[in-house]
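Predict structure. Chain length: 220.
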Amino acid sequence: MKKIAIVEDDQEVAKELQELLNHAGYQAILLQDFINIVDQICSSHADLILLDIQIPYQNGEIVLKEVRQKTQVPIIMVTSKNNEADEVLSMTYGADDYITKPYHPAILLLHIESIFKRMDHTTDQITYRDLQINLQKGTIASDTKELILTKNELILFTCLWKNKNRIVSRETLMTDLWNHHEYISDNALTVNMSRLRSKLKELGYVDMIETRKKEGYILK
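Prediction complete.
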């Protein structure tokens, strides 16, 4: 059963959402420690977060930005504002979807179902530009050459690929490695990233991974 965490300060709305989601076959939980909401989201182990923009203490978009530095759990932003700027900002900060109040419950369920369908569509192979990355074999190949990636290199590339054209912080990369039971220090991350870049260079891609000073890395 998929677990969905609800971050909503209106008690009546939160309870209605919880009832709706439970009735739809999900396990819905309420997260309402708004002072420590980022930590609560990260420790909830939810499969998806419904995050209202207007919550106490912190703007939901700022919470989203902080959560994205620690986890890539799917997040749907929920707001009463009909403002395109909020939608753009939410997507920029890493939201997976966006829905505006008032919404029909069936529409919300369709948004949730769509995200879970994308998550459940697993594959042994991913593609980026003309490169083929085989997750089972741990290889990366161009049209003319195939190289073996170490487990850490594969995890790093996959994390960057999932967030392509977005900056991924060093903390997020190390957390992803930790979630795969791979302990890695800050210096070791630099070494692994350098080795991954060397293999990409060998395949003809010199600047595929760009370093953003004091921010992280981005797969271009």
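Summary: The CA atoms of residues 138 and 149 lie 5 Å apart.
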